[in-house]
Amino acid sequence: MKSLFSKATRIESNEVAATLLSFLFIFSLMLAYNIMKPVRDAMAPDWSDAETAWLWTYNFFFSIAAVSLYGFAVSRLRLKVLIPGVYAFFAISFVLFYVGASAVDDTRLIDKSFFLWISVFSLFHVSVFWSLMSDLFTKHQAPRLFAFIASGASIGTIAGSSVTFILVELVGNLNLMLIAAVILVAIFPIVGILYRLKSTRMHTASDETNSEAIVSGNPFAGFRDFVRNPYLLGIAFFIFLYTSIGSFAWFEIKNLMEPFTRDERTQMWAAINLTINLLAIGTAMFATGRIAARFGLATTLALVPVAVAVGFLVVAANPVLAVIIVTWVVLKAGNYSITRPGREMLYTLVSREERFKAKPVIDIVVYRGGDTIAGWSFTGLTMGLNLGMGGVAIVGALIAVAWAAVGVYLGRNYKQKSESTGKEEVHGAA
Predict the structure, then answer these.
(1) Chain-wide mean pLDDT for the chain?
(2) What pLDDT score was predicted for residue 115?
(3) For every residue of the chain, which 3-state class applies, written as one string?
(4) pLDDT value, residue 4
(5) Highest averaged pLDDT of the listed ranges 25-34, 78-87, 374-383
(6) 284: exposed, middle or buried (C-beta count within 10 Å: 0-12, 13-18, 19+)?
(7) Which of 183, 264, 307, 387 is most buried, most CB within 10 Å of its CB?
(8) What per-residue confidence (pLDDT) applies to 244?
């Protein structure tokens, strides 16, 4: 069975335990998040495009503060304490939201606060997880393992969407927060076990990857390194274009869902998320690693942007809800199964300080900055220039073409840096 599993997934025998545990880790994170995500998205149709754009603007500045505090914590706490501590903090916050929403009659302010907070969590929990993965696995392991690990996110999303779809009518939106908090608490022990496996079964641990180590240095070095490093700037621009396209599609779906009730919207988003991840899971588990190994990272990163560009052109020709939902499914399923694992491979070539400090700046601040700019751009196109769904889709197709071009650039840059590093390692060993 182990031999068949290794042949199907390209995971070596000494990596199986760490890979499966990492799979379980991201599964649990996405299970918790996707229990709450439809609840958050169901709130948005009650607000105008301008209100939502303002919320995203607040979220951008809130994200800057959150990443700054995280950078300070990285410089002061051991990783085996810091990483579980991040998830404990969010678990406590969900309990507090539950208490607050239960105690008041008018929940409008709490709803908007929850929308902002889940938007921060949606990026923070994944960014911290992938920082850990880049710390645990080498640049040689990442192309083979990251896609399989990422499939745990798809399965977790399927489970979370299914749980929400079933439970929302039984327990209501509010009680889902407590369920998510319990799931987050259950993953605490995994971090320590993974670091032990790295030093025992995989034998790739070093002083730098010791969980007892503190990533010392300037707490705000992430912002500095991000600005100074062209490689990191390229990754940031890639993410900026991705979130811009996603924001355009999300706003269109939000507006077209306005006639439905909040519970109906919650079920619709849960069904959409379920569809996305059913499509993503097989690709991530069995195809993405082979695509990256055979065609290289440049093709891997450009594949989904090209498909999304075609999807937006179809939307421009036939601007209805069903078509934009299909484009959204292609975008998200492709991101989960192909683009995201490929993007995370890029971080295996940066320093540990950049991995834990600059990466959250890119994954959270740049991402939310893209949301903010895209949100106001969409509002300007629809409310200012009175563009319809078809016109906005053409703009989205142009952005997707630029996204593909940046993906090719990053993939080629990664290949050059990887080959250069490999030669230095061989020379050093000699």
Answers:
(1) 80
(2) 85
(3) CHHHHHHHHCCCHHHHHHHHHHHHHHHHHHHHHHHHHHHHHHHHHHCCHHHHHHHHHHHHHHHHHHHHHHHHHHCCCCHHHHHHHHHHHHHHHHHHHHHHHHHCCCCHHHHHHHHHHHHHHHHHHHHHHHHHHHHHCCCCCHHHHHHHHHHHHHHHHHHHHHHHHHHHHHHHHHHHHHHHHHHHHHCCCHHHHHHHHHHHCCCCCCCCCCCCCCCCCCCCHHHHHHHHCHHHHHHHHHHHHHHHHHHHHHHHHHHHCCCCCHHHHHHHHHHHHHHHHHHHHHHHHHCHHHHHHHHHHHHHHHHHHHHHHHHHHHHHHCCCHHHHHHHHHHHHHHHHHHHHHHHHHHHHHCCHHHHHHHHHHHHHHHHHHHHHHHHHHHHHHHHHCCCCHHHHHHHHHHHHHHHHHHHHHHHHHHHHHHHHHHHHHHHHHC
(4) 61
(5) 25-34
(6) buried
(7) 183
(8) 87
Kindly compute the dihedral angle of the four CA atoms of residues 112, 116, 118, 120, in this order, to the nearest 10 degrees: -170
Structure tokens at 361: 């700046």
**What token pair was written down for 275?**
């569809």
pLDDT score for 125:
81
Residue 116's alpha-carbon distances to 16, 73, 89, 125, 257, in angstroms, are: 37, 22, 16, 14, 20
Q: Would you give the end-to-end CA distance of the chain in angstroms?
A: 38
With beta carbons less than 8 A apart as the criterion, state whether 336 and 157 touch. yes
pLDDT digits (tens, 9 = 90+) for 54-88: 887 888 888 888 888 887 887 778 877 888 888 88
pLDDT score, position 429 = 42
pTM value is 0.67
| CA–CA distance, 96 with 112 (Å, rounded to integer) | 15
For the chain, the structural domain boundaries read: 2-417
Tokens of 123: 């990026």
CATH T-level topology, domain 2-417: Growth Hormone; Chain: A; (1.20.1250)
Task: Compare 43 and 58 and report the one with higher pLDDT.
Answer: 58
- Let me know: does 397 contact 313? Beta carbons within 8 Å: yes
Lowest mean pLDDT among 17-21, 355-359, 419-423: 419-423
Residue 203: band (very low, low, confident or very high) from pLDDT cuts 50, 70, 90: low
Check pLDDT > 60 for residue 206.
no
